[in-house]
Amino acid sequence: MSNEIIANFPTWYIITENVTEGILFLATIISLPLYLLEIFLIYRSRSNVFRGPFYRILLTGMIIDIFSAINIFLGQIIPAKNWFSFLYTDDQNGNYLGKVFYTITYGGRCIQGATAMLLAFNRVSAVCFPLFYRKMTNSFWSIIMNFIQTSGGFASLILIFPKSYTYYSENDGFYAAFNDQNFRKWFYIFVSLLEVLFVISIVFFNIATLASFHFSIKLSGSSNSLNRRNSQVNQRISSEKQRVEQSMTRMSFIVCTVEVIYFVFIVYTLLLHSNMNKRYFYYFYNILCIFYSTFSAWMLILFSPPIKLQIMRIVKWKTTSMNEAIRITTIELQKSNNSVFQ
């Protein structure tokens, strides 16, 4: 991407940029403890409530989201603000920080794209191939899916980390860049092809899921009209399972939609408008990446019944404990007051 040089940025843009970055920082700070709580809940109940492959895939993706969000601030936003410039002007420090920034950036992006693809594959398997979907819960398939999900991160570590980098001063800040331009060229081509593969797979899996889901609704409607004598207990169990499956399908669609939006942005900025100023590019890129790296925490609260139930239990337990502590304290105060007056 060639960089359009702008000598002086307008005041309105600088104000907008500062406000936006403050909002992004606030969103990250608020989302971080929520992420940690949800990761703890999923990991603690991984053998029963969150036993299926969907939440295992999502768990790995959430951990990567945390590192990606922190990496955007430490490796891009803070240097671009020209803060702690002594860390980036030193060649050795700049090289090391560039290694970390690019490795986490592209390694995280590969894992996030693979996560969206595997979530879509999980949903199409649940709807179209239920027998195979049941097999996915065993350790063999879990290992394969986790390998596919994290392989892009390991590949980025092997390819990117050994290279050298420099933080260049431009656009009133510091921005990391590859020193090896030949490597940079073919690596970006490789990442673009990988992104195309993710998006094509995601679109295909979601279309197949929607078509099969629509067909299954029609089929279940006709079967329900023929089997109205089923017990209410079985109907409740079936409706509860269907509700959980629908929530996972809905979350998969949301993740995949965000992945497609990211793909459209990259295609527009790198191919259709490749001369965009680097500072302007990173303004929109940071918004998209921070949103991508924080929305999953709120998505689970909104659309995951098991997560909602787990959090409600914690809140209820905390409320009960606080009320009990207040009651005991009140009783002790009453006893002490009575003893004083006596």
Task: Report on this structure.
- The chain has 342 residues and is mainly α.
- It folds into 2 domains: 11-303, Rhodopsin 7-helix transmembrane proteins (Rhopdopsin 7-helix transmembrane proteins), CATH 1.20.1070; 304-342.
- Helix content is 83%, strand content 4%.
- The protein is built from 10 helices and 2 strands, in the order ααααααββαααα.
- It has helices at residues 11-44, 53-80, 85-89, 91-128, 130-135, 139-160, 181-226, 232-272, 278-303, 305-341; strands at 165-170, 173-178.
- Helix 2 runs antiparallel to helix 9.
- It is globular.
- The protein starts with 10 loop residues before the first helix and ends with a helix.
- The model has no long low-confidence stretch (mean pLDDT 78).
